[in-house]
Amino acid sequence: MNVIVQPPSEIRPGSLLHPPIVVRLEGYRAQNATEIVNVNDTNIWALASVVSADGMVALAPPQTDLLSGTLVDSVHTSSVDEGRRVMGYMTFSNLAINEAGNYRIRVSLVRMPTIEDSEAINVQSIVTRVIRVDSRASAPSLGPEERDVLTSLKERGVVKSI
């Protein structure tokens, strides 16, 4: 997994993270060798959460009002693989961090419990760059590289808007 569209480096509290976070899932060896990721499996979900700037401390959850928006996405497959072993994409287009501070967003690929499994399994996780949330932050702008990636993903139906 890798973050192909990073969130803005700074944002005001409560403002939507724009550009949206886009994570690409490529062919890989799962952290747990017995876990094989089938992106068509309805039990595979991507979950967004907030962690400390060093990526070590989970903040939301447990804090319920720090991160708002749609925190869960499925893996969206694409027929175009850009010459890579792309398995799919996850997008988080309406997230907002509601308190000042320095944070990262962690995206975790999780296999949810089934009748045979007793608990969810974190297959893989990745964190974004640090996001400074400050009431004096300037409005984020979309760079040309980010715009190109988002335009390409929109044309393939992976993201809905830019």
Which helices and strands appear, and what pairs or packs with what?
Elements: E1 2-5, E2 10-11, E3 21-26, E4 44-52, E5 58-60, E6 67-68, E7 72-73, E8 86-92, E9 96-97, E10 101-111, E11 121-127, E12 131-133, H1 144-155
Parallel strand pairs: 2-12
Antiparallel strand pairs: 1-3, 3-8, 4-5, 4-7, 4-10, 6-9, 10-11, 10-12
Question: How would you portray this structure in words?
Answer:
There is one protein chain. With 162 residues, this protein is mostly beta strands. 7% of the residues lie in helices and 36% in strands. It contains one helix and twelve strands; from the N terminus they run ββββββββββββα. The chain has one helix at 144-155; strands at residues 2-5, 10-11, 21-26, 44-52, 58-60, 67-68, 72-73, 86-92, 96-97, 101-111, 121-127, 131-133. A hairpin with a 5-residue loop joins β4 (44-52) and β5. The chain is globular, with a radius of gyration of 16 Å. Mean pLDDT is 84; it is low at 29-36.
